[in-house]
Amino acid sequence: MEISNQRYCIQEIPLLDVAKKYGTPVYVYDGEKILSQVEALKQAFSGVTMKIKYATKALSNLTILKLMRQAGTGVDAVSIEEVQLCMHAGFAAAEIMYTPNCVDFEEIKQAVELGVTINIDNIPMLEHFGTEYGPSVPLCIRLNPHILAGGNAKISVGHIDSKFGISILQLKHVLKIVQAYDLRVVGLHVHTGSDILDAEVFLKGAEILFDAAREFGQLEFLDFGGGFKVAYKDGDITTDIQDVGKKVSAAFQQFCKEYGKELEIWFEPGKFLVSECGYLLVKANVVKPTPATTFVGVDSGLNHLLRPMMYDAYHGVVNISKLDGPERVYTIVGYICETDTIAADRKLREVKEGDVLAIKNAGAYGYSMASNYNSRFRPAEVLLLHGRDHLIRKRETFEDLLKNQPTVDL
Ligand SMILES: *Cc1c(COP(=O)(O)O)cnc(C)c1O
């Protein structure tokens, strides 16, 4: 978002005009930012065969998936529905990694029939897979290296209490099953959690994965998951993608040499690719002074952006209706009947009723976690690309609230 002609713009398109045209609340995505993030990641790993498997769950709008495909990424899908969405968006089965956890084996069978890469997350499922398919279907195994990473306990998935992956401490057991069923393990996977700070965390995970990989003879790729950290506020430490690229590539090349084969290195970024591209535009319904705080109540809330309440996430907020004038301290809250703080104690240009606020970093885990709580409609989504605005999802209507509820005569 930049200021041009005294207005907040993306690709020279004034955001206020987008709010006016589509109404609020509305999710707006800067497609050029998505493309430049994909490019930055490719650049950082230009020395190795790297594949991006975009984490669909971060933002699963069909048009965004199509944009990713155009940009040359594959996808990581965590449910059979995401697999189907990705195929609908044009991804070939071979470009789709399916990383479920705690699903019924029937869902894994469905994924096998669709031909996507299967990532197995627990030992009973591995045995089940062996009984069903033996060596006939290649697979990937998700390991948990028990590395603590992640800014919040809820998104830290590598620790000892985590439900994700097969513990690295169970490797011997895994190897026995692989041998007993003659399984064709073509990939190993780790995803230690969101918000990885630096190359060191990645390298620690990498070393553990390399050690495990030496036990498997038919590998084609190693998948390091997602978790690259992006800035949510000024001064945030972010993943230095160039530095991670250089160090991890060097370690990976060294490993491939020892392994005796050029493997592919895979990543599954969600936030890195789509967090910063997104803005949730909301309207100030009320400015309400109370003894301790001045609240700005907006026409959205945790039904549309859950992250502040769910993860204590920080999202920058800008009053895009005002370019200058005095700043005041506000707490921005939603219209949901529930404590619903979007941002506490923030300095914004003086807010008047009707002003439009832009909530930043709303691309990842924004719309995809939205609900109809309080029977509110989910917002519209708009993609800005090559200087043009595209409606990529309509705002819901009353019909949508009714549509799966048959009329019952009582
Ligand atoms: C959620 C998830 C990701 C993406 O994590 P980000 O923090 O958004 O990069 C990648 N891989 C798997 C398996 C995931 O569940």
TrEMBL record:
One of its GO terms (molecular function) is pyridoxal phosphate binding. Specifically catalyzes the decarboxylation of meso-diaminopimelate (meso-DAP) to L-lysine. It comes from Cyclobacterium xiamenense. This is Diaminopimelate decarboxylase. The lineage of its organism: Bacteria, Pseudomonadati, Bacteroidota, Cytophagia, Cytophagales. Belongs to the Orn/Lys/Arg decarboxylase class-II family. LysA subfamily. Its EC number is 4.1.1.20. Pyridoxal 5'-phosphate binds at G227, Y365. Keywords: Amino-acid biosynthesis, Decarboxylase, Lyase, Lysine biosynthesis, Pyridoxal phosphate. HAMAP family: LysA. The modification N6-(pyridoxal phosphate)lysine is found at K57. InterPro entries: Ala_racemase/Decarboxylase_C (IPR009006), DAP_deCOOHase_LysA (IPR002986), De-COase2_C (IPR022643), De-COase2_N (IPR022644), De-COase2_pyr-phos_BS (IPR022653), Orn/DAP/Arg_de-COase (IPR000183), PLP-binding_barrel (IPR029066). PANTHER family: DIAMINOPIMELATE DECARBOXYLASE, GROUP IV DECARBOXYLASE. Residues 27-363 form the Orn/DAP/Arg decarboxylase 2 C-terminal domain. CDD domains: PLPDE_III_DapDC. Substrate binds at R307, Y311, E338, Y365.
